[in-house]
Amino acid sequence: NGIILAQTDEFYVVNPGCQHKTHQSGQAKDDILTRPRLQDLVREVDPTEQLDEEVEELLLQLADDFVESTVGAACLLAKHRKASTVEVKDVQLHLERNWNMWIPGFGTDELRPYKRATITEAHKQRLALIRKTLKKY
């Protein structure tokens, strides 16, 4: 549970180890994704595409929710490390573990090996049968 510290036109919600500035209306002071920027992104994909207002609103809300949950999880990870600041590695860990996302160029310089799935014996037998069948024709 967060602590709310009142101020004049905005308030701070203090999550475990983090501060997040919001307006009294509950809207973020600086939206991550604005409606014009969303429309620009859509035009980059398809210049003729037009989003409905409800779809735009849903996508904007999704982006805000994603960022909010990521920041909250990164705060918890920083608190777990007994740190007072969130570092890139906190965000990276959350994105890797929960979203299977890697952000190239941030944090580690290690090369990530491609994880090749192990092939079971049953799969090898099926492949052999397919190859044998294909050779007949």
Automatic annotation (TrEMBL):
Protein location: Nucleus
Domain (Transcription initiation factor TFIID subunit): residue spans on this chain: 35-101
BP-aspect Gene Ontology terms: RNA polymerase II preinitiation complex assembly
First-listed, main subcellular location of the protein, grouped into a coarse class: nucleus
Matches recorded under CDD domains: HFD_TAF12
Pfam families named among the record's database cross-references: TFIID_20kDa (PF03847)
Gene Ontology, cellular component aspect: SAGA complex; transcription factor TFIID complex
GO molecular function: DNA binding; protein heterodimerization activity; TBP-class protein binding
Database matches in Gene3D superfamilies: Histone, subunit A
Keyword terms of this UniProt record: Nucleus, Transcription, Transcription regulation
InterPro entries, alphabetized: Histone-fold (IPR009072), TAF12 (IPR037794), TFIID_TAF12_dom (IPR003228)
Stated family: Belongs to the TAF12 family.
Protein name: Transcription initiation factor TFIID subunit 12
Native source species: Diploptera punctata (Pacific beetle cockroach)
Organismal lineage: Eukaryota, Metazoa, Ecdysozoa, Arthropoda, Hexapoda
